Structures are given as structure tokens and as C-alpha cells.
TrEMBL record:
Ranges of residues in domain Ysc84 actin-binding: 109-232
Transmembrane segments: none
One GO MF term attached to the UniProt entry: phosphatidylinositol binding
Pfam families: Ysc84 (PF04366)
Signal peptide per UniProt: 1-24
Record keywords: Signal
Region of interest: Disordered: 230-249
Name of the protein in question: Ysc84 actin-binding domain-containing protein
Amino acid sequence: MVIRAMHIAAVPLLLALLAGCAATASKGAATNRGTAQALVDEATVMVEDSLKEDKDGRVHRLIGEAKGIMIIPAIGDIGFIFSVGHGNALVAARTDNGWSGPVFMSKSSVGWGLQAGVSKESGLLLIMDQDDVRYILEKGAVLSGKARAVALNAQLDVDQTPEFYESGAIYFVGERSGLYAGVALNTGGFSNRTNLNQAFSGVEGGSPETILFDRQLRPHGAERLLELLDKAASESQKNEKDGTEVPSN
């Protein structure tokens, strides 16, 4: 009888413990969702500003041709050679059904090679081949190896090592500062923030490949960002058909 009474008394305690765990998990998910949305909002402003300042239409053209974009809201001040800590990035991919994502990444340390006058800590990396997009998600490496960093009026081979796919150019668009040659983030350092991916997209486990490529999701809260990317691509195609496309050199 005493043992049974102890079991009965333990039931409310167990239920309270489970409720507490659920509340903690729910609070964590809400926090992750809020963090993800703040990053998306910041990235949206960056893309919007870059497109507004694109007087000659070249950034529109690049977005229209790109297979992916990494948006870097904040990493740190950039000099000619520098190393800073901490930063966030968002990655979206262009599929046959339009732009999908974004997914979230972070970097604990950053090393850049010799720059051609980069002065801003944030910018857009336009990735012209899907293999490179997948490589970034898998390896956490950006512009390391045989992929070339290309400015609008210059081209520079960077870090000729065999570990990055030789499959196309990657362009850097500095926020409010135009395009620059020679941008080279060193191998590694970026990691997927699957907790933010899950909270923002609803995909269990937060796999970036699932979100971007398998399910090609356009999560609630990213509508404006994806609309800007879709519109930039469509305007570029329209200008090309009209014969008004600005030469890239």
C-alpha cells in the first residue's frame, strides 16, 4: 500500500517535470525562431540596398545567373590581411522553382587573403555553380581552392589548391561598396546552424540540403528576401531580352 501511494505521488511530479521540459524546449525554439528572423530581416535589407545601388544592372544580372547566394550580415572589419572572430551568414539556393531557403551558418574565426580595397565587413557572395553551393554547406569552406573570386571589372585566381571544385566563379558584392577582386575566405570555419534551420523552416533536424534542394522550401518570414531575389533574376532576364543588358566588362 505504501509503495502504491509512492507511485501515485510520483505521477504528478513526473508530469510537472515533463511539462517543465516541454516549456523549456518551446522557449528555446521561440528564441531560435526570433534569432533566425532577425538575421533574415538584416539580410533582406542588405540585398534591397545592394539592388537599389545597382545603377548599371550588373548585380541583377549576377543574381539572375547565380545558383546560390551567401549573405554575410556581420563578420568584422576588413583590412588588406585580417583575422576576426564570430559572424553569421545565410545561404539561399536557386532551383528550377525559384529561390529557396535561407539556411543559417556561423563562423567562429575568419581569415581573408589579400584584398583589393575591401572596407566593409558585410556583403553578398554570388555562387555561380550548384556544386559550389553544396560544397559550402558540406565543408563550411568558401572561396578556397580553385573557385575564382571575380569582380565586375577584374578577375583573379585565388588559392589554387585542389580541394574546392573548379566549377565556376564566385562574385563578392560589398554592401554599399561595390565589387572587389581577390576575396578569399580560408578553408573551414563555417558551420551549419541546424537549430535555427529547424526553428525557421520546420524541418526536423534542420538539414540545409533538405531545405534548399530536396524540399525547396520558402519559409514564412523569408518572403520579402526571396521576392527580391526572384524579382532581380526576372528583371535581368527581361533586360537581356530587350537588349538593354549592361556588358560585364
